[in-house]
Amino acid sequence: MQTQHRNSQINEQDLQNFAEAWNRHDLQTLMSFMSEDCVFQLSSGPDVDGTRYTGYKEVEKAFRKILDLFPDCQWTNPRHFISGNRGVTQWTFVATNEDGSTTEVDGCDLFTFTGNKIAVKNSFRKIRL
Q1: What pLDDT digit, counting tens, does each position of 53-112 carry?
Q2: Distance of CA 102 to the CA centre of its chain
Q3: Angle CA(65)–CA(68)–CA(74) in degrees, nearest 5?
Q4: pTM confidence score
Q5: Are 11 and 3 in contact (CB under 8 A)?
Q6: Beta strand pairing call for 34-41 and 117-125
């Protein structure tokens, strides 16, 4: 049974559907989960919080850029939990880099929800040396 939590209309199945849309590279479905004033914080970038994209169109461009940069990327073994208007998905990111090498790292997304939409997707991932 999927649980629904106070202050959020998002449940674990919604997060699973969001993860599956990433693996299908289905940008239209991904964006259907995002609020109009959404924020996406990339796990890398020049600022302490990575690179921040604000607003539906900017987030859509950032998602497209990731999918274009890693055309075979997958987020495997997603695991989800929700508490109030916050949620987490843990995953393993697997992709082929431009030089032909493979990236495989664990990471997670921290979510903030507004109603039935994702307002903030804050991504973190391990860096292998």
Answers
A1: 999 999 999 999 999 999 999 999 999 999 999 999 999 999 999 899 999 999 999 999
A2: 20
A3: 105
A4: 0.90
A5: yes
A6: parallel
